[in-house]
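Appendix B. Chain record.
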Amino acid sequence: MRHAYPGVITRQLRPDERFIQSDEQEMPLVIEADQSKDLAYLQAFLRSHSQQIIADIAHYGAVLLRGFAVNSEDDFQSTVLSIEGLRGIEHAFMAEEGRISVGNQKYVLHTNAVYKTGGTLYLGGFHSENYYSTDVPSYISFWCKKPSTTGGETGLINMRKVYAHIPEALKAKLKQQNFYVSKWRVEEIVERYHITAEAVESIAAHFKIPAIGKGKSRFLLMYKPNVFIHPHTNTQALQINFFEIAGLNEALRQCFMKDYAGNTWFWHRLVWRLPYWPLHCIERVYIIVASFLYSPRGSFKVFLNKIKTKIASVRPGNRAILGTQTQRVGACFTEQDVAELAQRMRQYYCSSLWKTGDVLLVDNLQVVHAGMPGAGERTVRAMICNALEMDYNANQSGILTCRERSPETVGRYMVEGCLPKFSNVEFIIRSKKQINDEYISQL
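Structure tokens predicted for this chain:
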């Protein structure tokens, strides 16, 4: 351990706090209540040690605050923001369905309001936060309001250590170029943010988000790097959404199978042994049903947007571009690469069984996460902080030297319908709704 803090217990996780044992023994650094459990004490402590806390998140990959009186979403938000240098992200561009704020909180999010993201039959889905959005956070924080009866921890994998073991030939592929990640119809963005197509295009152009097509078939495309160079440690980590790699979830289930022995996990193991297609169909049906029950109108809108996107994708011109410029990062990995990657991810996996009030601060530049299998009601909240500066164009390097974006996210400018100020020129493009409201107010 590099550093001990005054007034608290500074340590690593004990074996009894880990559901699964692995070679990852450093992550997370635990800062546990000692002299006081009081919320005010915790927040004063974090403010006074902010620089060292951020350094330790970078060094260990994650910091766990345990045993303090963090009793509500408001407590969670104010605790994270008491660390000087952490800035909450309120609006992430084209966030997934169900990724919404909790109540009247500005930055506290449901992990997903539509479906359960941990403590289920599912194992897999490790990801870097907001991979499918332009607005990638440097940090993601979790707060446990209620742990699962069984399992349900948030699994972390130290991708800095995993990447160090990747074959050099594969590293060269990953560093050589970025890869296609997502596309959005301009019309869909207009509908979501209630702004004009001109506003969407201007904001996209400013952030160098490429566009193709015409009219209702016009798309914004997004490409992402694969390897992050950390701004504090200068180390490299593979940071992608691992859904992109075919066969990896299946390989991970095999690697973790022995960790879920006994009658408690019988149904989990049974599901994990299903062939790919039946299991994939079960997953899709669950998400569709959950989406419909959450919001029938919303689920129909999502379905309709997918149909419109499919139709627009095969329009003349779009089909040619999307057919040649949409190679995904998974194409770099052979079957042997996938098997070896799964083994390394299991080797450098870490999680702590949740306790009520726990706050987990995670470095999203070098650690991936996922909600782990379990059973019983589970409530975990999330916050994302400090958006990264990124180039979204095709044919860029696959390696990114990370630095934070200032001042705001692409999503924030879409919500406002305008661009930020630069030098002596202000580019303001208001939505039709904003213009109409202003006109009516002047009558």
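Further analysis of this model is presented in Appendix C.
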